[in-house]
Please model this.
Amino acid sequence: MSQKINKKNLLFLSLSILAITAGALSIFFLPERFFYDAITISKDFYNEKGWIGSYPFSMKFYHITGLNRIHFSIVALIQLPILFYILYRLGLPKRFYILTVRNILVYISFLMIAIFISMPSKEFITFIILSIIPFLFKRKKLPLWKTVALSFLILILFGIWFRAYFILLIPIAIIMHLISFIKFRNRIATVVFSGLLIAIFMSLSYGVVKGEFLSQSTREELNERRIGEDASNSIILSPIATDTFHGEAFGIVYGFFSVNVPVNGLKFILSPQILAFVIWQLFLIVCLLLNFRTTLDNRKKYRYEIWIFYFVFGYFIIQGVFEPDLGSAIRHKMGIFPLIYFALYYDYFRRQVQ
Model:
């Protein structure tokens, strides 16, 4: 047993060191567009720093800590060990050192974390705050309803303070939970589709009040301005105009599949970095759907763990509304990676606390 424990710890440490090294060196070999957000946050060109909002708070955080005044490679050496330590404290499966599909997905994710959070980043803050939720569900110190309510409170406060769309996770998760009790032939597809319907309903309701639907006023307008730019090869643009009810509904479904089941991304065979994400995402969604089905089929046994799947798939649905391109999609998934990590190893975390 000790040999197995040493193997998993040794592999985790080796992968972490490799990822931290890659993150520290990324400034020297990644294209400049990877650092647009980081430069905006660290330079704060228009003195926008503040306490509310993702950009203002990120600027304030990096200003107060002084991380905006040091080289990005040093930022990587400070930030990345913190993130990997959080994952280590969350737990390592006993068979972490064995080459399985979900282990390989996590190995690759370490490198993606290094690439996307090795610099001043909003995702660094998101990762740390949202990691509280899987720790709550893992430890089971509170009754389930209190654990869920506390998670909702975290999402509400985080949404008000940092990114408003995290609040949308709550109604989507609740509806998915309620629908999951109904015995359909294909319960997984029904539960996920019910979450999509809620996202569509919220977007259409917003459009009635504001005059523009959610994906229309965010993703579509942004991408229409970006067409033809150097970094626009992976943009997500609905083939149907989103200025009508049916167009917006189609656009949200199209966006969901584009960022979560991106079979249309296989066309980027000449862009290996995009193709690598597409393949990673396809294997990830299959693993998560299989795990989700197991928790639904054994909901009494996994009554805590199942809520992590509601949050993860709820977030994936929200990405279908807002994500402008595949690069942003993977960057934001790294921000919620503690939830994804828990969903991949849900069965191990349950055994660990017994």
